[in-house]
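Prompt: I keep going back and forth on a fold encoding question. Comparing notes only helps if you start from a blank page. Show me how you would write down a chain together with its backbone fold. Please set it down just below, with no commentary around it:
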Amino acid sequence: MKVSFTCVLLLFSLIGFSQMQKDTTKLSDVVAFLKLPAKKGSISYQFTILTSKDIEFQNFQNTADVLSNSGSLFVQKSQQGGGSPSIRGFEASRVLLLVDGVRMNNLIFRAGHLQNVITVDESLLDNVGVFYGPASTLFGSDALGGAVAMTTKKVKFSNEVEYKFTGSTNTRYSSVNNEKSVAFNLNYATGNFASFSSVSFNDFGDLKMGEKKNRNSDYFGERLFYVATINGIDQILANDDKYVQKNTGYKQYNFMQKFGFKTNSGFEHNVNLQYSTSSVIPRYDRLTETSVSTGLTHAQWYYGPQERLLTIYTLKKVKAFFETDVQVNIAFQNAKESRHNRRFGVYSLQNRVENVNMFSVAVDLTKKFEFGELLYGFESYYETLNSSAFANDIRTGAISLISTRYPNGENQMIRNDMYVSYNSKYNYNTFVNAGVRIGFTSLNSKLADNSFFSLPFNQIAQDNLIYSGSIGIVKNTSKTVSLKANVSSGFRVPNIDDLAKIFESVQGTLIVPNSNLKPEKTVTADLGFVIQSLSKKVKFQNTYFYTRLFDAIVTSPFLFNGSNKLVYDGTLSEVFANQNRGKAFVTGLSTSLYVKLLPSLNLDATFNYSLGRIVDKQIQAPLDHIAPYFGKIGFTYSKSVLNLEVYLLFNGKKNIKDYAASGEDNLQYAPANGMPAWQTYNFKSSIAIFPGATLFFGLENILDLQYRTFSSGINAPGRNIYSGVKYDF
């Protein structure tokens, strides 16, 4: 009997969630930011923690790649400089992103695809908590499908380190895009004062796709031509290498500074400063759009430097009063992003710029009892937006005003929430989790100039009372079997992007404001079990979930001033708007398996499947953002100074009949019959070459497969050889 090369590799690479070194992350280290009970086994809802050891060994190029290669959630990409996490079929503004306990989601987070997660450099991360299902009770609005809570490296005092000065430097080179990255960390420690500094730089060249045909489809996405502007004239040039995705490179700069100070009375003060910026980031999917008359539609389409500034002051004390731990966060964030586009042969470059400020205060309190733990607190966010736009002629320099993406007057949003969560040990083998959150949000948006697009109003205002709750139970039926059940609700309050934007999704499709939107709400039931051998050498987990989405916000045809078509930017366009379209559901399962085959050899696997449908007048239609089944399987070996991993990443086929009609699934960037299935084989290693120094080496997409992930507008990397050195001192 013949055994194919693929089957041999699959057998050899069976199972990998990839923990190359012992998981040293203590739950107590992340409770403050992730709002978790101290005992991990008592938690009824599904979550995963990726530790700094996981992240360091995997050596991925950005945080989006860290998430997508974990095998635990799906990530969409429209360009190399991006990555939009999807959890249980929810994406973008329906997944909450947090950094050090402060929400990144702001009043212009859109429902399409986002790239904000890459502004948190992977070299800064201490751990990442991924929460599956509604997490609004813990974290507030937007956590319909789940939350990604990123915690950065903490400042360390003298009792936590051996020397006064400690740190590390890390370098990496990748062949697939000529990546050159470097990061440097330095910690200064005394008994009551400490400082942590970090800087990093990433230089990514044009990304090369795989050259080998995917057996599940024909060749797809090759870059035959691209646009160059020579002597002020747009020209279409032949690509010297059709596998190099021309105009995908970018650079990113990251900085973090933390200070910690302990007082004799037991208080700890922390200051956390983070800044990230980039070069311009080409929007690759738009640059590949074709036109019958010109060949390629766009001469330029890029995001401006994506800037993120975060400052946090934290005050905390253990047992501050009545045996209660207290943590207070006061934060300020500024996010700048812009879009710049110009059609082929049209020399007026359109520039739309957004500047968001976010002020927040949060108080988290933890009280421990003999048989339980109480988490409670409140948080308040105040956000403002300035939206501006102009066009400049690239040949003459002439500047003119154009329509803004969002209302060009005052835009603001206020969120005030209170929450309480109780985790109890009912008896020696039963744990109960319960929580509730209630809050009030207010949104106000004004049009200072209504001349570009005549609207029947000049102000949009909305107030919403919001609430959510959760209850769950963990039952240890024996020493080897645990049953888990959880019911939770979530909410997402419409923001400026939902209510007030005027947006050309694709040419000929115009999205207009709809002030009658209501919050989206979900209710999810989880049922799972964990089977673990007494020796802890085998662990099998499975979670089945069913989510009902109420008042789902869906982009669908709309009448504006009685018409279903309008002229926008010189093009007759069909009118769409965000609307509450009844109900929808998402159901599926997540499975993982761990087997310790030998003292140094592990076997891990993950498998995820989701199905989503919109239910409107008893008619079911595909819900957008539902990824095909996906997962990761592989071997890990760790002994002494050597760590090895061989693993397989896989995605199923997304059939054309399962694409949503809204366009968010980007069918235009997929083959005619939908996105084909794919699987890649990968190898990673690290070796301690001398005390303090570690050499990293790996091969990704070993077979150089040509493929594209579902809803993405760029082909995935081809065969990549990477290497790097980390030195700790």
Notes: Residues 371 and 427 are 8 Å apart (CA to CA). The domain at 5-728 is CATH 2.40.170.20 (Maltoporin; Chain A). Residues 1-28 have pLDDT under 50 and may be disordered. The radius of gyration is 25 Å.
